[in-house]
Amino acid sequence: MGIILKSPDQIEGIRESSILAAECLDEVTPYVKEGVTTARLNQIVHEYIYDNDAKAATIGYKGYKHATCISPNDVICHGVPSNKVVVKDGDILNIDVTTILDGFYGDNSRMYMVGNVTDNARQIVEAAKTCLDIGIKQCYPGNYVGNIGYEIAKYAEGLGYSIVFEFCGHGVGIRFHEEPEVAHKAEKNSGPIMKPGMTFTIEPMINEGKARAKVDRSDGWTARTIDGKLSAQWEHTLLITKEGVEVLTDIHGEYPKPLKLI
User: Fold this and answer.
1) What is the pLDDT of residues 178-228, one digit of tens each?
2) DSSP 79
3) Is residue 184 part of a domain?
4) What separation in angstroms does the CA of 81 have from each of 5, 68, 69, 129, 231?
5) What is the pLDDT of residues 94-141, one digit of tens each?
6) What CATH code is carried by the domain that includes residue 170?
7) Burial (0-12, 13-18, 19+ Cβ within 10 Å), 250
């Protein structure tokens, strides 16, 4: 179908869903501590989505049964919530939520650090957040989508991390996954040109060791690093505006709105 440039009414719907998706991560934050199961964290998010007259986009998606993906330590993404997975002191974990509110989608994820994390763990979490921020700075009309991944990879690889290439950001808003694909490692000045009305995610996944992923055969979803080393990821949903970019899932005022970058 190609890249969908959203109308003002569609943008407002996507904005409201994105706000709800971000609120889900705030809602679950006090519960992310030693001893909780990832199934319980999923339940908290699911109930919050339901209480706000919305749906979790992941439930029923290709047979997936949960409202979140929760990915600890060496899990890159798509970690399946479970009563058997108990959060431990020193864990890092990503919680990923996509909401459907009045037919519109908002998508985001956040890293959490539990208790006494190692220096290595803290550093990769912080580096992944910086990668997201670097990608956002490349978002303005007239720039190439590929420059998002080019700048992210330049930074992360300069620190000795690898960039996961098997999963990427994507258009979002009217559907769960739309065009364009947003690679987190790309050639400079590659891909489509950004235009006002485009909405998409940036969600860089960086690994301590090798870039490759392996999917657990037990559930067909959980993607881990092939060497058991740590991985970290942050995600926002973005809107390209005439002035620059609006970070739709930013509910704490971290980024100016709109963020003018040209």
Assistant:
1) 999 999 999 999 999 999 999 999 999 999 999 999 999 999 999 999 999
2) P
3) yes
4) 34, 7, 7, 23, 17
5) 999 999 999 999 999 999 999 999 999 999 999 999 999 999 999 999
6) 3.90.230.10
7) buried
Q: What DSSP element (H or E) covers 17?
A: helix 8-28
CA distance 260 to 262: 6
Residue 160's Cβ-count burial label (10 Å; 0-12, 13-18, 19+) is exposed
Q: Number of structural domains, the chain?
A: 1
Q: Which residues face 244 on adjacent strands?
A: 260
pLDDT score recorded for residue 194 = 98
Please report whether residue 1 resides in a domain: no
Is residue 243 in a domain?
yes
138 φ, ψ (degrees, to nearest 5): -90, 0
pTM of this structure? 0.96
What is the residue range of 215's domain? 8-260
Task: Find out whether 132 and 178 touch, Cβ atoms under 8 Å.
Answer: no
Task: Please tell me the distance from the alpha carbon of residue 126 to that of residue 82, in angstroms, as a whole number.
Answer: 26
CB 167 within 8 A of CB 213: yes
Residue 214 near residue 250, CB atoms below 8 Å: no
Phi, psi angles (nearest 5°) of residue 104: -110, 150
Query: Residue 164: inside a domain, yes or no?
Result: yes
Q: Report residue 162 as tokens.
A: 């690898």
